[in-house]
Amino acid sequence: MENQSSISEFILRGISQSPEQQQLLFGIFLCMYLVTLTGNILIILAIRSDPRLHTPMYFFLANLSFVDIGLTSSTVTKMLVNVQTQHHTISYAGCLTQMYFFLMFGDLDSFFLAVMAYDRYVAICRPLYYSTVMGPQVCALLLALCWVLTHAVALTHTLLMARLSFCVTGEIAHFFCDITPVLKLSCSDTHINKLMVFALGGTVLIVPFICIVISYIHIVLAILRVRTPGAGGKAFSTCSSHLCVVCVFYGTLFSAYLCPASVASEEKDIAAAAVYTVVTPMLNPFIYSLRNKDMKGALKRLLSHRRILSS
Questions:
Q1: Per-residue pLDDT tens for 267-300?
Q2: Element (H or E) spanning 160, and its range?
Q3: Do residues 26 and 62 touch, judged by C-beta distance below 8 A?
Q4: DSSP secondary structure string, 34-47?
Q5: In a designed cystine with 134, which of 56, 148, 245, 255 is the match (CB 3.0 to 4.6 A)?
Q6: Is 0.85 topped by the overall pTM?
Q7: What residues contact 173, with CB distance under 8 A and at least 6 apart?
Q8: Which tens digits make up the pLDDT trace of 12-68?
């Protein structure tokens, strides 16, 4: 029996094993990846170039766009390379590295959405204290706290995975190195790993989600108390984009990780993972740009400025 030091690579099954479907999926995922890169980079550039968007809400939106780029790049690029080269393998070290970055960026998405919900809560429910509560130092502290916590969680899972033994080079039933499919290949006792997946994974998903729900409960109650006609709708319109992203992100994430074992399947898990690692990061720039007048204006000014420079 070989231990993990002699296992040099794993085989990634991918999304489909049919050659015809692989080429079709390659084109689809490549287009979505390029759209994701372009959209999120434009969001970052628009926020950075427009002084009117130098506020806490857009500061965290720019960071969310950066994280979306990292989340998609950490999973999709390897899959695209494997399909193009027809070499469906990933090294042992590469698998652990991919797992670390996937977990870190995925958890950061969850934490940033919670911080953005808190920002909207303070802006609507405590407007007089907004500049104090969400000052530059507080925003920097929240950003640093998110990075430190997600780094610790991702590193914990990766180190626990590195201590396991893998008897043979196995096939990972996924298109990237997610925790659960890799654990199925181990011939070691994975009890601690599964316990930490349940404890830490549940925490980084449930706690931010609860914070978002509590924030929006207070926001809705505050809006219902507003007596000025149209003021409540205007206040809630600033939250609509964020709320759409939250629903898409957590809907697919919960279906993938919190679904009962009797309902879950490999195909369903792969489809859900494709949605929250590719589709959601691609849709986020469209949601924020189409439903936000300030962002639409900033993007128009950015693109017009680029056209003037190019001409």
A1: 777 777 888 888 888 888 888 776 677 787 888 8
A2: helix 136-162
A3: no
A4: HHHHHHHHHHHHHH
A5: 56
A6: yes
A7: 13, 181, 184, 266, 270
A8: 887 777 777 888 888 999 999 999 999 999 999 989 988 888 989 899 999 999 999
